[in-house]
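INFO  loader      accepted 1 record
INFO  loader      residues=126
INFO  predictor   begin
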Amino acid sequence: MLSLECDKSAGYVEITLDGGIGNDDYTAVVTAIDDALKSHDKLNLVGVLRGFGHVDWSVWPKDLVFHATHRNWMKHVAIVSDMGWVEPTMRVFAPFYAAEIRCFPLARLDEARAWARTGSITRAAD
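INFO  predictor   done
INFO  writer      dumping tokens
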């Protein structure tokens, strides 16, 4: 399942993947991103990957078009996951995006959100 939280006024999007991706879920996410981009040149994004499942075949061509037409839409991207393959994969693809990308474990989700919104992390005093 693909879910979305979007704060259009702040230019912030959080996408959570836990399972498969269907056409309706994918379309809702892209529509929300496009709506937020009407007010912002770039968005801050948190991508939470809890589990990865089947991707509906109708999503693949739409995703290729999305990435071809949305080259520079992200500013700060926090990828949050405990799946071991995610961070190395992000290191491979990060140079193709004009965004600052960092990976975080699920236990640091709040820190990832703070970093994505501001580009810095403010830690509480010890």
